[in-house]
User: What shape does this take?
Amino acid sequence: MPQDPEGYFEITYQAPFKGPNVQLPENQIPKEFSPFTNNFIFKNGEIRTKPVLKKFIPGPPDNSIINAVYGFVDGNNVVHTVAVTATGLWQLNFNWQEFRGKAWNRVSPFPAGTGFSNLPSACAVFVNQFYFTNGGHDLWAWDGITNLKFTGPSTVIPAFQSVAKIDVAHNLTAGARFLGELNARLLLLDTIEQQNSAGKPTTEFTQRVRWCASGKPTVWDPTVDTGAGFNDFLEVPDTITNYMSIGRSGYVFRVNGITELTPISNGLLPFDFNHLWASERGIGNVFVYSIANYGPTGVFISTEDIYEISVGGFKNIGGEARDAIFNDLAAATSGPIASIYPRFTNNYIYLCYDLSIPQGNSSVNWIFSFEDRNWTRWTFEDGIRTGNVRFNPIN
Assistant: This one.
């Protein structure tokens, strides 16, 4: 790094490259790191141009906002790719590439008065059925087989149905902001519950976890089956901000903490709830939809860093790019949304965590490579991510 009396200096960087480093002045960055970069990718120790990415699948014909894209196999072993919007549930046509203008068929609209919103939807596949909810007082399910039914000129029976009747005798229904699965049970987290459906107000329980009976995703009433039930986190005054499961354990994320769920039985209390630290000052998830997991690995964002969670514990991964990532998060115009996927194409393997940060009508994406352990920054000028995207190897 020679320097002349006029202030000129030269820095030589050298492979294998480890990604951007914004934690040090440029003239002190180690030779294997790079200064702040944009729209490149660091793979196998090289600096490369990013893969060619394009709008792969067009949106629904009514231009509704996609809240989630998911894939599942139904009871007849038929593969479905579905999208959830505020106007209903849509299915991707198998020949959509030939008829791009009709890529999606609407499975069913939402019944009137359900108030389905444009929040990212929580989704799960359980017993060959697709379940979804996003902050209403219903948990919806579609088996992939039932079709939309018309019983009259204006009467429609949806192909999907609300299944979380948590108190059959009093017609008490529940939805949630987050959805999970553990120990052969569906979980509703941060629940929204309603007594009757005739215009009664809903109540949100931000600290509540509900579960169905073992293997029975339509049975949520403990008076019908004692395997169903709920738990309120009253001992940790905090709000649930998402959920993920890794192996035999589930993790309920809160703003200031994490609660570990360990299966212990199939009886009245199927889980042990272990709060990992005090809720007022612990590490938690502060960006609700920044959580993503794939196989034995998950990622979430706390107040001070980005963390990887696995069967081996927690590890902060913000590294040398942390401050630049948090600068972009501070400039976000709405909440960031994350996904984990293993490849861009079949011959471009790249297991990564993709954090999409909306900034106006554009987005900044920070990509973390689990193999190379580095970050790269991309920008997109043609829109923002609005829903959860789940990589599904069957599609």
In short: The chain has a mean pLDDT of 87. The longest helix spans residues 322-330. Residues 159 and 261 are 33 Å apart (CA to CA). DSSP finds one helix and 30 strands in the chain.
